[in-house]
Each structure stands twice: as structure tokens, then as C-alpha cells.
Amino acid sequence: MSVFITFAAALLIFGAVIAIHEFGHFAVAKLCGVQVNEFSIGMGPTLIKTYRKGTQYTLRLLPVGGFVALEGEESPESEQAEGGSGDDDGPDIPPEVLAQRTGKPLNEAAVWQRMLVMAAGAVMNFVLGFVVLLLLISLRSEPITSKVIYAVEDNALCGQTGLQAGDEIVAVNGRHCFVANDMLYELMRTESYRADFTVRRDGRLVELPDVQFDTWQDEQGQTHMTLGFTVYGLKKTPLNVLKESANSVIYYGRIIYTSLADLLRGRESINDLSGPVGIVTAIGQAASYGWEDVAEMLGLITINLGVLNLLPFPALDGGKIVFLLIEAVTGHAVPEKIQGSLTVAAFALLFGLMIFATYNDIVRLVTGAV
Length: 370
Hints:
With 370 residues, the chain is an alpha+beta fold. The protein has helices at 2-31, 76-83, 95-99, 111-139, 157-160, 180-188, 238-265, 276-289, 291-309, 317-330, 336-367, and strands at residues 36-52, 55-70, 144-152, 168-172, 175-176, 194-201, 204-212, 215-217, 223-225, 229-234.
């Protein structure tokens, strides 16, 4: 049963994240007058397809992806959808459907329109994340956790080194705290259990360098930090819920940038990378705790996918946007040969990283270090 629940939860999350991403590309392409030849959920052989206003809507066998095939776009999916080659998808596209394809090719759209089409998938991932977090925060019985200190424990080291009741925590180690979790995340990354704080005290900003925290050791000899203070709860008014939801999107999105920066600086090991197996395992763990944890995992994954897709990397939407920015500034498109070569190289690198991360996942599963 647990395997079935994990599979169902993973299918729900991946399906929702991919569908909303591709819908973003699809909707903005339609709004910009670009011809959409196919909108597909899933990959591989076709299970169901239908036509409407010149666009083929397809459900495919493998729930591991999806795509939007645009007229004039250089991709295998687009080329297949343009002509109806009579392969495993069955007979050619009906002539009446081809006659309804009156939209313009993507490469004939204005540069700003193409940029909007490329960015729309990631934007919809952020929208989905916001909606999920909005529902979660609204439905939880607990109040919203604020960043204002309610009380500092007696003799707590953090109180002796600067923090006071009534302080509103603005930043930790120079990084602005949008939500309370920002503060906790930064404290987890601190070295020697100390950090620099910026707080708002009596209406003015106060810098508190080198705030220190008490520690304790568990039975395995591992050292843990004691926070040493509590914070106020916020009443869940509509405005507070909206603000907390929007700030939580920023919090989740910033984690991916911070993690990548830590990886490049050597603060995190490349052996900690996790791939599809690790993600499915995490989804299974979330499913065992209940629907709220599954929904939170959905929010985390969709926001992270949106952030990753906007990275200026040739194989991603962000890389395509960079090419379009160059075209907008210079007035000339980056040669297709250069774009193609960079994209192939980037795909090879991403594929290699995925294989390495999947190997890490399998090793952790076999050794029980999950």
C-alpha cells in the first residue's frame, strides 16, 4: 500500500507541476498569436488525442514530462507536430485541422513576445506554488509565525549577546528574512553557532554582531543549537495570509539559489545532490505524514522548478531568454548553430548530473542513509 501511495502522490505532484508549466507556455503563446500545434501531457506513445482550433491536445503514456509544440520552434516535438509524420501517433493530421492553423510561427513573433512565452512556464510554477501555500496557510489551525521575539529564555546565550524581547528580526548574516523560516534556515547554515543579526528595535534598525547560541549534545554525540527565544503568533487576517504566502514563495525560491551557491563554494558536497529517485522517496515520506505534507512538497517542487528553469543555462528557458535578450540588444539573433551546440552541451551536462544524482539516491537507499 505504501508503494501505491508513493506512486500516486508522485504522479499527482509531477503531473501538476508539469501540466501547469506547459500550460503557461501554451496560454501565452496563444495570447501572442503564436501557432500552438500540440499541447501534450506525458511523453511517449499517445493514449488520447483530440483537436481544437488547429491544436492537438494529447495525453501520452509516460507521466514523466510534457511539452508544447510551437510552429517554427526548433525541437523534435515541434517538428513532429507540424507535419504529422504518420509515426506511432497514427495517421497524418486531418487536413481540416491543418487549415485551422492560422497562427504565426514562433520565430516570426516579436522578441518581447518570445521572451514572454519562454518565461510563462516558470511564472505559472510560481503561481501554483503561491496558491498551494495560500491554501495551506489558510487551512492550518495555528497562527502565522512572526519574526518578532516574544521572550528570551532566562540565561540564554542569545540574550546575553544581544537579542531582546520585542526585537523584530530583519536579517541574519546580511540576508533579509521574509518569513520566520528564513531565520531558521540561516541559523542552520551558521558556523560555530553564532550569527550577525539586524533587528528593528523601538522603530530603528540595530546591528547585533556575533549573537551566540547555546548548544547541547545527543546520545550519538552530535551537537545541536538551542534557539533560546520564542516569537509572537500573527492573527490570520486575509492581508497577513496573502503576505505570508507571497513571502513563502520567495523563501522557497531563494533556497535553491543558496544551495547552488553553497555547492559552488564547497560548503555543500556534490555527493549530497539528489535526483528523481530521491525526490520520489521524499514524496513518499511526505505522503506517510498526510495531505498537508504532500501539498507542501508540491509547493516546494513547483517553485524550485520555476527558479531552475529561469537560470541562464542554454538548455533551460532562462538560457533561451538570454539568447533573446542578446537579439533584442544587438538586433541580430544568435546563430542557430551556436545555440544548438550550447544547448546540446548543456543537455549533456544536465544528463550527467542527473545520472550522478540518481546514483547517489540509489546508494542512500541501499545503505539506508535516506
